[in-house]
Specification:
Largest sheet: 8 strands, parallel
Strand content: 15-25%
Number of strands: 22
Helix content: 25-40%
Radius of gyration: 25 Å
Distance between the termini: 27 Å
Oligomer: single chain
Strand order of the largest sheet: 16-15-17-22-21-18-19-20
Number of helices: 16
């Protein structure tokens, strides 16, 4: 089971249309904690759970943009159709009960006891709910305020509350899997007490504490969340995301599920049956991962609508969709031919929508249609199909748009593919342009996305360094440059998934090279550097 943070609201100092004030849901097994109760967050909470099912409520401080919906929750639980089985523990700074009582013009807060069990926080306060450990520290704000460290089964989420930089936050955040940090202030006068983080302060905290991922939230009205995230990322240098309502983040993302899809029927190579063995060997090279293996379909299929083996491809797609629906956390899909990317890219697009970019590391564009394909092989049509222009029975439930795609290392396009790239303005980086990470990062940033799906067809590699593919092309990337490109993507964007395809085992030296490359790619994509995986106290980045 995972420790998960779901964003209910991020606005300050008042709610905006479509954007509630600060509120978050911590989930750990059966334990659910509503963390801050800004205006509008109660309504969003009910998209994920019912208030009467909460294990606890935790408030960082009593400013209205973090606490006002506690009053609404009282109304829901005391006067409406919701009844908790017992008073819900509320952990809050001193004075919370009196604030609520004052709204009702009551001299004492005793009447609240039927709904809330209000308990005062103090510096160093600790409580365990189920297996979830909550540690609160007093932080630097203009009223009494607290930061929170949540720990569950070795995973950690830290929340800054509203605070300026302070030692307590540094201590709370050390080695956290996920740091949720406010960046309310555009800047701060040097001669004034600092009650909030600037984006640079948030990035510096994440760097000092060696956290694995930074989520920027509670951005003030004079700075966009995207600008704040970019500024924080420039200081942190690690994965940095913008908190958005409805998004959920799991701590401890080192646990990966490998979905092995031994499909070969989409390939045009005469040696395509080797892809089944290649998928198994790739899966074995991925460390610390659960493994889901789709049963192989050893027979060729029937051609229809200009696609070879179309009936078998549809059966594999159906099985892959089912397998992916049962996974949680990061997924690495290994093939098999490039056609195995239909289900995982579709799933990423359904989850992230316009926030997703797809980086297509491949010697080929895979942008043919059944009408333009010279071979009828689906692995040359898969990206075009994901863009909504392919065989009807294989189309995704939600298509990509051309401006979400970045072609990386593509150097062999058929005439119809070249025309499509030019007409739709698809971003394309040559092998030479991938010599440094900046052009790739700029191309993805230009899509407007903050999340990437990374597709790797191993024929993107130069045949001089790797020859075990069915359709090699000269003058490709070398393994170290591919690894550096993926690592750069992971430093700047969240990685929605990773696909590795088209391995046809032939040369023992190629398997030895993959034994180093594949774990490096996977660890980069899930935000783990080699130093972080070793027993070291040095910086993770």
């Amino acid at each position: 089971m995972s420790l998960t943070l779901t964003v209910l609201g991020t606005a300050t100092p008042y709610p905006l249309p479509g954007r509630a004030c600060s509120g978050y849901l911590l989930s750990a097994g059966e334990t659910q904690v509503w963390m801050d109760a800004g205006p509008g967050s109660l309504a969003n909470l009910q998209r994920h759970t019912s208030p009467d099912r909460l294990s606890a409520i935790w408030l960082s401080h009593l400013h209205a943009d973090h606490a006002a919906d506690l009053l609404s929750a009282y109304y829901a639980l005391a006067f409406a159709d919701l009844r908790a089985p017992a008073p819900i523990p509320v952990y809050a700074p001193a004075g919370c009960a009196q604030r609520l009582a004052g709204f009702f013009a009551q001299p004492t807060p005793d009447f609240l006891d039927a709904v809330f069990d209000i308990r005062e926080l103090h510096d160093g306060h600790q409580i365990k709910i189920g297996g979830l450990q909550l540690t609160s520290r007093a932080v630097h704000h203009d009223i009494e305020g607290f930061g929170l460290r949540a720990e569950y089964e070795g995973r950690t989420i830290v929340y800054s509350g509203d605070s300026g930089p302070c030692t307590a936050l540094d201590e709370l955040a050390v080695d956290a899997d996920l740091l949720l940090c406010e960046a309310e202030a555009t800047s701060w006068p040097a001669d004034s007490p600092q009650w909030h983080h600037t984006p640079e302060d948030a990035g510096a905290l994440a760097q000092r504490a060696r956290v694995r991922q930074l989520i920027v939230t509670h951005v003030g009205p004079f700075l966009t969340p995207e600008e704040a995230t970019s500024r924080a990322a420039a200081v942190f240098g690690g994965p940095t995301l913008t908190a958005r309502e409805g998004d959920a983040y799991s701590a401890g993302s080192s646990e990966v599920t490998v979905v092995e899809v031994p499909q070969w029927q989409g390939s045009a190579a005469r040696t395509a049956r080797r892809l089944e063995t290649g998928a198994a060997l790739l899966a074995e090279l991925i460390p610390d991962a659960d493994r889901v293996r789709l049963p192989p379909l050893d027979r060729p299929g029937t051609a229809r609508d200009g696609v070879n083996n179309a009936d078998v491809l549809l059966k594999t797609l159906t099985a892959a969709r089912s397998a992916l629906s049962g996974t949680t956390g990061p997924v690495v899909t290994v093939g098999g031919d490039c056609g195995v990317e239909l289900a995982p890219v579709e799933a990423a697009q359904r989850q992230y929508g316009a926030h997703l970019a797809v980086v297509w590391f491949d010697a080929h564009g895979d942008l043919n249609t059944p009408a333009s394909s010279p071979s009828g092989a689906f692995h040359g049509m898969v990206l075009r199909t994901l863009l909504g222009d392919g065989p009807a029975e294989l189309l995704p439930s939600r298509a990509l748009s051309p401006d979400q795609v970045v072609l990386a290392g593509v150097r062999a396009l058929d005439p119809g593919e070249s025309d499509y790239v030019q007409r739709h303005g698809i971003r394309r980086l040559s092998v030479a342009e991938l010599a440094e990470p900046a052009p790739l990062i700029e191309a993805v940033a230009a899509t407007g996305a903050d999340t990437v799906y990374v597709h790797i067809d191993l024929d993107v590699l130069d045949p001089r360094s790797f020859a075990s593919v069915g359709t090699p092309e000269p003058d490709g990337l070398f393994p170290d440059r591919l690894a550096a490109s993926v690592a750069a993507l992971a430093r700047h964007f969240s990685v929605a998934g990773l696909g590795i395809t088209e391995y046809e085992p032939a040369e023992p030296a190629d398997q030895a090279m993959l034994a180093s490359l594949i774990p490096t790619l996977v660890n980069a994509a899930r935000g783990i550097s080699p130093a972080a995986r070793s027993e070291t106290t040095g910086p993770r980045r």
